[in-house]
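WARN  no MSA supplied for this record, continuing single-sequence
INFO  ligand: adenosine-5'-triphosphate
INFO  echoing inputs
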Amino acid sequence: MSSIYRRPELAAQMSRQLLNPGVLDEGLRSGLFLSGLRRTGKTTFLLNDLVPALEEAGALVMYVDLWSDTQTNPAVLVLAAVRRTLAELQTPASSMLRKLKRVGSADVGAFGFKFGFKIDSVGTEGGPTLARALTELVDQARTNVVLIVDEVQQAITSDDGNQMLLALKAARDAINPRPGTPGHFIFIGTGSHRALVSELTARRNQAFAGATSVPYPVLDADYVGHLLKRLQQEGAVRLPTLEVAVQAFATLGNRPEEMLKALRQLSRHLPPGGNPDEHLPVIAATLRSTAADIELMKVEQLGSLATAVFERIASTKGDARGLFSADAAADYTKAIGREVRVEEIQPIVNDLLAANLIMRKGHGMYGVTDPFVQEMWREKKALDDTL
Ligand SMILES: Nc1ncnc2c1ncn2[C@@H]1O[C@H](COP(=O)(O)OP(=O)(O)OP(=O)(O)O)[C@@H](O)[C@H]1O
Ligand SMILES: [Mg+2]
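INFO  complex generated
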């Protein structure tokens, strides 16, 4: 049994809704945004289930992860992915061409696509726009083209990223409404920050206003069952019941890595004659709070000022503003017990951004990157305050 629990039916159903939407699902062609907490398996689902399902249905799929390199401008990463695909399709006998040929859509056979522009110039000043490049792509591929952007929220943190989203919307609006278009351009974005991701579709001034935003379907009892079965096959005997294991998985925020850790601890530390169903919930509760500790430790390692800045952001409901104000500096001074000058703050905020602990949500607005970490920080804070 593979270590990855796959969800082909779910993926096939999503793929059908995206590529051949019924009347009620037509809105999905405006864009689909999936949001789910960190480490719950979004990327794994995209790469192992959804991409194959879309390809199986004949679509040409491009994938880009904006967290693969948080230092690089999101727009650059997206352009690179598009250019890579175009280049591959120009290459005779490339695997992408073979795939298209197999599903019988492209009429160019093994010879490669011919674009009326230089690939390197796509999206540059004077070069073809993303809309033009993607239109040509759809027209030659004669099939649906899907662009998946993992951690899309990263794009709204910079002006270039926002421009890129607008360029993708322009592409969608150039391609999809054409009568008899040989394929559609479908945009899928995922993100770990539910509020931010929904904002992408809800705010009128956002590029993808009107697109659909849905929660990422987390792994469920079937995954836990699969895991227990694998352990059984490996010869484990003192396993929890499915019911208790599912409950523990929920406590751990539906995170497979944490679940494995919990089961590992259970198998190592269960005393002779101990009842797995009694021990697992305790282990899960403890792990739940240590999961966030790792992230909070990273904050501490950046120093006391970083901790004070992080606390200010984490204790704010919604967007934290005014991090660089004289007021804020006075608060930091109080928190760390030494004079903090306003010009010391920016480099610290940059450190926190580079460590992906906080994110910029707009001009002068910041938030904690991982909502789970923020939640745990609050729980701890409340506990400290009562002691
Ligand atoms: N279906 C699955 N079966 C088994 N393990 C899984 C499955 N999905 C995810 N995992 C494991 O959970 C961990 C997190 O998965 P993944 O990176 O896909 O999550 P994510 O939500 O994209 O995380 P991030 O927020 O870091 O982007 C990985 O170690 C992965 O192997
Ligand atoms: Mg991911």
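The first strand starts at residue 32 and ends at 35.
INFO  checksum written, moving to next record
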